[in-house]
Amino acid sequence: MLLKLERQFGLRGIVLKWFQSYLCDRIFQVAYNGSTSYTVHVTCSVPQGSVLGPRLFIMYTADLEEKADEHDVNCHAFADDTQLNERCRCDDTPTAVGKLEYCVTDINHWMSAHRFKQNTEKTELLWSGSKYSLVNSMVVIRHSSLALTLMSPADTFAS
């Protein structure tokens, strides 16, 4: 995280040292009912419930949007939820599906490399269009570690 703050966001000097003192040399210990656990040295993560946590998360995941851009797929993120979207004509469905497949695969590789795990239970595919276009297009997304659930717009907006 410190390298990202320095290289990607240009933080240097006293500001970078402040982040270093906040993120490094942290320990974790639980005290309960008069007993204390062993001390564990924390080598990664951000303190839960901290004011800086959400901002550091956004900085840490800034590359995610670039990954989507590499595939020319639109990306929208809010907190820890990310939406990828692609717009296409009916006759362009296979191309759009292919772009999404490759993008999801690439993002999963990025997530693994950065110690994130995709929540497959919350991963869904929303395919919308007119009644005519939905009847005449078959959408199948293949992904080795992911079974995408095809959702209708009514299902998504009802919940």
Number of helices: 7
Average pLDDT reading: 79
Shape: elongated
What's the arrangement of strands in the largest beta sheet? 1-4
* Class by alpha and beta content: alpha+beta
In this structure, how is the largest beta sheet organized?
Answer: 2 strands, antiparallel
Q: Name the beta content range.
A: 15-25%
Distance between the termini: 36 Å
Rg, Å, rounded:
21 Å
Poorly predicted ranges = 154-159
Secondary structure topology:
Elements: H1 2-7, H2 13-23, E1 26-28, E2 31-32, E3 35-36, E4 40-42, H3 53-60, H4 62-70, E5 74-78, E6 81-85, H5 93-113, E7 124-126, H6 131-135, E8 149-151, H7 153-158
Parallel strand pairs: 7-8
Antiparallel strand pairs: 1-4, 2-3, 5-6
If you had to describe this structure to a student in words, what would you say it looks like?
There is one protein chain. The chain has helices at residues 2-7, 13-23, 53-60, 62-70, 93-113, 131-135, 153-158; strands at residues 26-28, 31-32, 35-36, 40-42, 74-78, 81-85, 124-126, 149-151. It has 159 residues and is an alpha+beta fold. Strands 1-4 form a two-stranded antiparallel sheet. Strands 2-3 form a two-stranded antiparallel ribbon. A two-stranded antiparallel ribbon has the order 5-6. A hairpin with a 2-residue loop joins strand 2 and strand 3. The longest helix is centred in the middle third of the chain and has 21 residues, at 93-113. The two termini are 36 Å apart. Mean pLDDT is 79; it is low at 154-159.
